[in-house]
C-alpha cells in the first residue's frame, strides 16, 4: 500500500513556466515532508522540506504548499529552467520511524 | 568529505549467485538505509540501521540481509539473487530523526540479475 501518492508521473513545462507536483498522504502521524531531486545516474538530493506547523515554505524558485486538513502537499517550481529537468520525489516521515517516498515525477523543461 | 559512497557501481549476476553491496559514509551519521528504486515504484526501503550493531526491516526486506559492524559501513547482501532483484540500489545516511532529518544518498549501484 502506497503511503504517499504522487502525481503526475511525468510533466512537460515550457521554460519560464510553473511546474506543479502534488502528493497526498493518509497517515496523520507524519510530521516531516521533504522533496528530493534526482538527476539521471545520481542519487536523490534534498531540495526543500516542510513541517506541518506551517502552510508554505519558499526557497528561491521552489515552494512547498502544505494543506494539513486535506493531507496534501505540493511542490511549485517558478520560472522553470531546463536545468530543473529531473525526477522529483516527495516523501513523508514520522520521527522515529522510516521515510516513505512517492513514486516520482519526471519533469522536462523545454527551452 | 566524500559523503556517501557505494561499491560497486554496476554488477551483473546470474540467478542464484550471491553478492554484497558496500555503503560507506564519512559524516559520522547514526542512521543508515538501503533502498531499491524501480521504474514507477519510487524508492522502497529494504533495511535500515539506527546505530552500529543494529538493523531493522523496511518495506521490502525479503531476499536481502544487512550488517552494520562499523558505524561508517552498512552492507547489503543477496544470498541467492533472483531476476526480481534487478534494480538500482541506493544507500543513504542521516543523523537521528528529529535532530536532522536530511537523508544523504549515495550514487547508486545498478544490479542486473540474469
Question: What are the main properties of this structure?
Answer:
heterodimer; A: 111 residues; mainly beta; 6-stranded mixed sheet; 5-stranded antiparallel sheet; 11 strands; 55% strand; B: 114 residues; 7-stranded mixed sheet; 4-stranded antiparallel sheet; 50% strand; globular
Task: Please provide a written account of the structure.
By secondary structure, chain A is mostly beta strands. Chain A contains no helices and eleven strands. Helix content of chain B is 0%, strand content 50%. The interface between A and B is medium-sized, with 24 and 24 residues.
Q: What is the compact description of this entry?
A:
Chain A has 111 residues and is an all-beta fold. Chain A is built from no helices and 11 strands.
Secondary structure: elements and pairs:
The complex is a heterodimer of chains A (111) and B (114).
Chain A: E1 4-7, E2 10-14, E3 19-25, E4 33-38, E5 45-50, E6 56-59, E7 62-67, E8 72-77, E9 86-93, E10 99-101, E11 105-110
Parallel strand pairs in A: 2-11
Antiparallel strand pairs in A: 1-3, 3-8, 4-5, 4-9, 6-7, 7-8, 9-10, 9-11
Chain B: E1 4-7, E2 10-13, E3 19-25, E4 31-38, E5 42-49, E6 56-57, E7 65-67, E8 73-78, E9 87-94, E10 104-105, E11 109-113
Parallel strand pairs in B: 2-11
Antiparallel strand pairs in B: 1-3, 3-8, 4-5, 4-9, 5-6, 7-8, 9-10, 9-11
Amino acid at each position: 500500500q502506497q503511503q504517499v501518492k504522487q502525481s503526475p508521473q511525468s510533466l512537460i513545462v515550457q521554460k519560464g513556466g510553473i511546474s506543479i507536483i502534488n502528493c497526498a498522504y493518509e497517515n496523520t502521524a507524519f510530521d516531516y515532508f521533504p522533496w528530493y531531486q534526482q538527476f539521471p545516474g545520481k542519487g536523490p538530493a534534498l531540495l526543500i522540506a516542510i513541517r506541518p506547523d506551517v502552510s508554505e515554505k519558499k526557497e528561491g524558485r521552489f515552494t512547498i504548499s502544505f494543506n494539513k486538513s486535506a493531507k496534501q502537499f505540493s511542490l511549485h517550481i517558478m520560472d522553470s529552467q531546463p536545468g530543473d529537468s529531473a525526477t522529483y520525489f516527495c516523501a513523508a516521515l514520522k520521527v522515529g520511524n522510516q521515510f516513505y517516498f512517492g513514486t516520482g515525477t519526471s519533469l522536462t523543461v523545454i527551452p | 568529505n566524500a559523503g556517501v559512497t557505494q561499491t560497486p557501481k554496476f554488477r551483473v549476476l546470474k540467478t542464484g549467485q550471491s553478492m554484497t553491496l558496500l555503503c560507506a559514509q564519512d559524516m559520522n551519521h547514526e542512521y543508515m538505509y538501503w533502498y531499491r528504486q524501480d521504474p514507477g515504484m519510487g524508492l522502497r526501503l529494504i533495511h535500515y540501521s539506527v546505530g552500529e550493531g543494529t538493523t531493522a526491516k523496511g518495506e521490502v526486506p525479503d531476499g536481502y540481509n544487512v550488517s552494520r559492524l562499523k558505524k561508517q559501513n552498512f552492507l547489503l547482501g543477496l544470498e541467492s539473487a533472483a531476476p526480481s532483484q534487478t534494480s538500482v540500489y541506493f544507500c543513504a545516511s542521516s543523523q537521528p530523526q528529529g535532530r536532522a532529518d536530511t537523508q544523504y544518498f549515495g550514487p547508486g549501484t545498478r544490479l542486473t540479475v540474469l
